[in-house]
């Protein structure tokens, strides 16, 4: 795989391949987090500083993870970034007849260090290859005080989902100013759940429900992209990513619907970038993520009481619905060496009010995201980029959220997020 993007000779190629390999190893050790449900809100430090906008506004090599057609517009470059991510997750239960009432913090593990890397190399004036490795998304909660202790749960409660995507990319400028790109999307994912013993009694395979360690699975999908220069001032783009059918989490075959199946949802999006004056570019993205198309994520808990236990065909999931995501970003060239960025993103909340009980484990409910960023050119060939993101606390208040067999009452879930990140960009 690495020979796909390395140079045929010279000292730089081995260093690039070594960096890619090292980043992949670190990614496996890091639980990924996200803001658009459990997807990352942007690919690459520059996009993240501009609200996550990237479909029609490629700025660094990680842009190919948002739109593979971007590879023809980036030149020969390597970008290596790292993000320090601090989510603030929690839950409150009230009116429960089984003794669950209380406030609970899911912040037993913080912060998270999340690397990413992208490399793009033109083969000609019209053809470019690339490789991006980054976190597709994930979710982590760690409740030292187990919210379900009154049910008989033991130990720490929480989940740790990691999804890493590896995207080899080919892009071709089919006519001047208009490019198409394709990326086979290789997904590697790990999952662990702890402290959910009472729910195992409602599973078709109770021995494979909780506290089974980390299980791994993999799958391959495809991402297609288009990027076009419609006028000297306007670019447009779009992408489509297929649903990624992955192998089952066998250790959690009693938790996830269809015997441990946990696929990556289908997604698609459109973007535009306008440059009204040479120093300023304004970008906007729209993205659709079809969480409801994955049974383990989208099925409601209600089916449990319709004769379908956890782990069965069509069994319960987390009740997530499909979401629409909007992003706005601005990039301003302040001088030959300094570029400034700002942005805003708005995502639908995927968790309905009636589905908050299980989402104590996965409260991916933040909606608004505010970002700032900047790039400073160290030389003609090297630059550093930094950014910061804040997603204010969002609370989903349960309504009919705890079924009567579990004691009734309501479960509220909340999440806020803060992150800072840096990257080094090299023009090769």
From TrEMBL:
Main location: membrane
Compartmental location: Cell outer membrane
Annotated membrane topology: Multi-pass membrane protein
SUPFAM superfamilies: Porins
Classification via Gene3D superfamilies: Outer membrane protein transport protein (OMPP1/FadL/TodX)
UniProt keywords, alphabetically: Cell outer membrane, Membrane, Signal, Transmembrane, Transmembrane beta strand
UniProt xrefs under Pfam families: Toluene_X (PF03349)
Signal peptide positions on this chain: 1-34
Entry similarity comment: Belongs to the OmpP1/FadL family.
Protein name: Porin
Protein's organism: Novosphingobium decolorationis
């Amino acid at each position: 795989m690495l020979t796909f993007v390395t140079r045929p000779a010279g000292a730089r190629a081995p260093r690039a391949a070594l960096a890619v390999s090292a980043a992949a190893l670190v990614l496996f050790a890091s639980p990924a987090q996200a803001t658009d449900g459990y997807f990352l809100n942007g690919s690459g430090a520059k996009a993240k500083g501009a609200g996550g906008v990237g479909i029609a506004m490629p700025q660094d090599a990680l842009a190919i993870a948002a739109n593979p057609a971007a590879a023809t517009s980036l030149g020969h470059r390597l970008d290596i970034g790292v993000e320090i991510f601090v989510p603030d997750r929690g839950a409150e239960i009230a009116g429960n007849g089984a003794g669950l009432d209380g406030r609970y913090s899911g912040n037993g593990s913080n912060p998270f260090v999340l690397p990413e890397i992208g490399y793009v190399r033109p083969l000609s004036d019209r053809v470019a290859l690339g490789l991006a490795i980054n976190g597709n998304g994930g979710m982590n909660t760690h409740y030292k005080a187990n919210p379900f202790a009154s049910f008989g749960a033991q130990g720490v409660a929480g989940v740790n989902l990691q999804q890493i995507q590896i995207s080899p990319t080919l892009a071709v400028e089919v006519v001047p100013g208009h490019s198409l790109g394709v990326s086979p999307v290789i997904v590697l994912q790990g999952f662990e759940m702890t402290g959910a013993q009472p729910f195992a009694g409602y599973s078709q395979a109770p021995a494979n429900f909780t506290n089974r360690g980390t299980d791994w699975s993999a799958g391959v999908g495809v991402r297609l992209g288009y990027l076009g220069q419609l006028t000297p001032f306007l670019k447009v783009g779009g992408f489509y990513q297929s649903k990624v059918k992955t192998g089952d989490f066998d250790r959690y075959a009693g938790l996830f619907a269809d015997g441990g199946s946990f696929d990556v949802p289908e997604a698609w999006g459109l973007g535009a970038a306008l440059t009204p004056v040479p120093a300023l570019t304004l970008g906007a993205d729209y993205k659709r993520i079809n969480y409801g198309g994955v049974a383990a994520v989208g099925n409601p808990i209600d089916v449990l009481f319709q004769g379908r236990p956890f782990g069965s065909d069509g069994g319960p999931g987390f009740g997530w619905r499909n979401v629409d995501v909007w992003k706005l970003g601005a990039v301003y060239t302040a001088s030959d060496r300094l570029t400034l960025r700002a942005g805003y993103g708005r995502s639908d909340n995927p968790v309905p009010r009636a589905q908050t009980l299980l989402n104590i484990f996965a409260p991916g409910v933040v909606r608004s995201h505010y970002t700032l960023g900047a790039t400073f050119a160290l030389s003609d060939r090297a630059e550093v980029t930094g950014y910061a993101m804040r997603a204010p606390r969002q609370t989903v208040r349960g309504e009919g959220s705890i079924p009567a067999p579990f004691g009734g009452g309501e479960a509220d879930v909340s999440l806020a997020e803060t992150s800072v990140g840096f990257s080094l960009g090299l023009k090769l």
